[in-house]
Amino acid sequence: MHDQLAQIGIQERELSISHEEPEHEEPEPSRASRLATRWRVLARDRAALAGLILLAVIALAAILAPLVSPYDPNAQTSAVRFARPGAGHLLGADEAGRDILSRLIWGGRVSLFTGVAPTLAAAVISLLLGLIAGYFGGVLDQITMRTLDIFFAFPIVLLAILFAGVLGAGLRNEVIVITVILIPYMTRVVRTATMSSREQEYVEAARAAGAADWQIVLHEVLPNVVSPLLVYAAVLCGLMILVAAGLSFFGLGPPPPSADWGQMVNTGKSVLFEAPHVAMIPSILIVAVALAFNFLGDGLRDLLDPHTLR
Amino acid sequence: MSTALIEARDLKKHYPLSGGLFSRSARQVRAVDGVSFSIEAGSTLALVGESGCGKSTTGRLLLRLIEPTSGEVLIDGHSLNEMAGRQLRRARRQMQIVFQDPFSSLNPRHSVGEIIAWPMRLHGLGNETAIRARVRELLKLVGLQPGHADRHPHQFSGGQRQRVGIARAIALESRFIVLDEPTSSLDVSVQAQILNLLQELKNQFGLTYLLISHNLGVVEYMANDIAVMYLGQIVEYGSAETIMSGPRHPYTHALLSAVLGPVTGERRKRLILHGDPPNPASPPPACRFHTRCPYVQDICRETPPPLEAADPGHLAACHFADQIPQYVSRGERNP
User: Residues 194-213, chain A: which have Cβ within 8 Å of B?
Assistant: First the structure.
């Protein structure tokens, strides 16, 4: 016995103390306290918290637009044309004498929607495509990815304009266009995460336990795919608000007079030198929201990392 | 007692080597090339060999985690490879695996309790309350605390993770467990604890093990029988005692020479190999070991040696199994 163990490089003394690895009983964290931990992680991340607050305020204002907007966003008052920010019109008025703050609040409905809705729709479709392509591989993977590669060959905005041109302007088409643009990018993220998860031994363990492919995909692979997708989606939300603003800027968004941020920049550009605030204020908001989504995405990545779940 | 629980019959697994999209590939890697053995219920067979010799592939073939190119696996005399659907699922309940890497083998997104409970849920073994109670029991059985069920894998050390992997493997009350290098990635002090745990579980539940390892110290401690693999084939097979004390194949001799151990007074003739093992895509003809064998003769390059009895119950695939210098001379051992 001693001889055998010595060959593994183990002394008898160590064996006699074996079995129980030194262990100190710690109180187990409750579900509530783990939620609290998650919240602390987010709160520590100042940028993510700021992003979250900004987005919450804007979303709330957009939802409650009829209650919080000081004016009718489409009411034109020629007396206040190009009014500078100040009393009466907090953020000034545009070339038609419409209150900018009210238009931003109402426009938030459109702009947030065109950022978030296509991202969610694309996320669902991409999950399906990416999981199948990544998990099963082979011909299915080749067909899916080579098709999507065609889309990668074109710049996003060019593709958006192309589709919008074919489908025509309008809110519904804008959402469809942005969804289509997003699918290749998100599918690629899902597929990559799927492929790396599929190679892990826990998938083999699941198969040894008698799990079918669909059970392995749902129970073992999906949880490892959702969080990178969520992080990516948060970042893309911001980018898509920019794209939506761009489409509106080119007149491919919802038709006037409905307010949306991109269109406000568009109409403001003609008076950029006389009344810079008309274009600048919505531009700043667009950039701020895009940044907020980015920060939130970074924060989510840390939050969803299982290693932060202490 | 001498009933074979698991039997491998001429298992082969060849992987095609793809040369690119448009080139047709005729070449293939013969990862496992005609392996046969059987494991009696309640015993441990060790598969030994250097990395790349096909021992892990053999373990996965036994569980049908990969499909063999040819050959079959019998469990209780029934062909695992002919099963499908419900029958296959039932057979899978009988056989589990413990992996080498305690990091990749536990899903980082699940709690330890979920990891251990899932196989039981898959097979519909009891309601949630019963499964939760069983998880706590299993955790205690492998030397962890019941309260650990809510933690995630990253909160554990390598040894503790390996215990979780073992708990998962015994959750279904399987009879046969493949241990794929279960201690290779652990600290030496923890290795002994895990090996003891595995032995205890084996005694307590009458488990049958296939132990895949390159560590002959571990093998000697655990195994009843040993099969030595080289380039996808078994070159020597016998009881642990006979192989450890009197190997008949020069390759086994070399493996034993590589074990670090204290000087025990026995005078052992060491055999040191040079060079890397040949590419399994183009194994040497005839005896696959002839390129590295110090005793090579012309016949070794011309005729593949059959795996045949050197002594009763002790098989070796070497033309000169009876003639090569002995690892420990018999005269010294039995004066």
Answer: 200-202, 204-211
- Which residue type, as a one-letter code, is found at position A105? I
* Residue whose structure tokens are 């794209």: A243
Task: Output the pTM of the full model.
Answer: 0.80
List of E strands, A16-94: none
**ipTM of the modeled complex:** 0.85
Of B145, B152, B261, the CB nearest to A25: B145
User: Do you find a cis peptide bond into A257, omega within 30 degrees of 0?
Assistant: yes
Residues of A in Cβ contact (< 8 Å) with B88? 210
SS3 of B4, please?
Answer: strand
CB pairs A-B closer than 8 Å: 119
Q: How far is CA B48 from the centre of its chain?
A: 7
Q: Which of A243-247, A252-256, B126-130, B264-268 has the highest mean pLDDT?
A: B126-130
Contact criterion met (CB < 8 Å) for B118 and A219: yes
Does the distance separating the beta carbons of A209 and B107 come in below 8 Å? no
Q: Where are the domains of chain B?
A: 4-16+28-94+174-333
Q: Are A275 and A97 in contact (CB under 8 A)?
A: no
Domains assigned to chain A: 92-308 (1.10.3720.10)
Tokens of A35: 């939620």
Helix (H) or strand (E) holding B36: strand B28-40
Nearest chain B alpha carbon to A2: B221
- Per the CB < 8 Å rule, is A15 touching B192? yes
Q: Among residues B228, B259, B247, B268, which one has the least CA distance to residue B321? A: B247
Q: Does A14 touch chain B (CB under 8 A)?
A: yes
The number of angstroms, rounded, from the C-alpha of A45 to the middle of its chain's C-alpha atoms is 17
CATH assignment of B4-16+28-94+174-333?
3.40.50.300
Most confident residue range from A237-251, B187-201, B299-313: B187-201
